[in-house]
Amino acid sequence: MKETSLVGEIYRGLRVKYGRPGGQWCLWSKRPKTLAEKEEVAIGAILTQNTNWRNVEKAIDGLKREGLCALAGIYRLALKNKKQLADLIRPAGFFNQKADYLFFLSRFVVGRGGLEELQKKHQKGLRPQLLSLRGVGPETADSILLYALEKPVFVIDEYTRRFAAKNNLASIGDYHFLKDLFESNLRRDYRLYQDFHALIIIDGKHNGAQAH
DNA sequence: CACCAGGAATGTA
DNA sequence: TACATTCATGGT
After folding, report:
1. Which of A's residues 161-200 have CB atoms within 7 A of nucleic strand B?
2. N- to C-terminal Cα separation, chain A
């Protein structure tokens, strides 16, 4: 239960300061998750691309109102009426692109028997398969792996880059370099990775929003 | 009014 | 490899 590395010490500092991730992270850092919650996280991982989380919540609420915050439902709707799907997620911005992206992701997951099947199988080759989907880059793939499929994969984003630079952990922002830095200095535990990454963003917002 | 938010794809040099 | 552009809403 104890981290001896510098990275681990920094994590404990965040835990002392903020406790477990709350607010918007209550769902993403929740353990265990129901299947419906995992699907909501996977959908949110697409919707949140370059978009404020408040707008993502509006889009997710819209999907829930129609009973469509699920991958099988999204797949069916995208086949039947892609424009209706785009209209539902409009508040999240980039709605035409993201309707396509959700279609590709839902088709992939449904075609492989659902998220829980994915979580059990394909321990190794899953990340390249996610990356091969249009609309799924490194950050989105790792967000799905970590928060929806509960794999010990560290997510790197702009907050993580700033955080690493600020704490003198790395001078370069290369995605896989930083990913390997965190993963090789921490227990291989998805729960630790979830909380750490969430706290990095919480801390980044805390430090960047002083003017309010 | 400009700028940004939990990116990725595509094109150019 | 390193930037630039596009996609688009809603809050500040």
Report:
1. none
2. 37
